[in-house]
Amino acid sequence: MDSRVLRVVQLDAARLDSLLVDMLQKQVLGLFAPLQSTVLETHVAEVKAALSAILYTGIVMPSNATYGQKLLGLQYVCHSKTSPSRYRFAAHFVCTIVIPLLWSKLLDAVVRLRSTDGVQDSVERIVAAVHRVDVALVVAKYINHILFLLHGRYLSLADRMCGMRTSSIATVPRRISYDFLTRELLWHGFSEFAVFILPYIHLRRVQGALRRWWRKGRGRTSTTPSMGESSPNYTRGAKCGICAVDSPWTPYSAQCCGAVFCYHCIQTNCTMDSAYECPKCFEVLATDRLVRCTAVSSEVLKGEVHQRSMESKMTAENSQRELG
Length: 324
Fold this sequence. Notes:
This protein is mostly helical and 324 residues long. It is built from 10 helices and 7 strands. A 3-stranded antiparallel sheet has the order 5-4-6.
């Protein structure tokens, strides 16, 4: 039986393992994102190493294969095509997870030492030695990759050092499930349709239509009485009823309730929706029901309101006297 494995299949398995670790890392970092803590962001390498260790001890050691290898029907074997021992797996664990983590922390420390002033000669020699070792490791990885492409064995340098290569599992047929792929295609199709159709939907018009339908079903009407021909004055410092900006630009007041809006805000909404409702009293607004107004102080406006209420009161008393 020929147990040689295609190089592309081994690369696909390694890629699946890398994507799995990245996905779990993203989920863990997103889980602690609401806490607004920078602890995990500064220890991304440790989080990735911890997740890799959990996957290695929970999947690789019991089944002699990584998650990606199990999906593609592969497993780890030794030179004699037997299952690796626990000691070999322990050495592979150290070479795959522990040493890369420690080496990355050492490189970070070297970068910090280089950025400081007044470095001693002994420290400079250590930094130069670490740099040479790093270059040697990169060259060794390239050589190992070339040998892998030539012979199809030992995908990583750790696999070659520990004598663990990949073999196919002939007794286990490869099962492919298209459920996930179908869900992804449906979701992407829905996302593209939503991105295409949403710009053509006027959300404020839909909101107004739903609000009118709700009040019609409940039998409700406007809760704010109409002011008739309201005063074209408003309190200085009042906010626009749409954009909530202080001191609206070119202010216009609604005759129904006296709400103040910026000209561009109310004109745009009335143009886009012929049945646009006032955000304050929910009356249908139109451009002919808007009055240009000017800003006055609150004391002046209170005086005008008080005077208007007194006039209304006197008119009501005179009407009662005439009726009496």
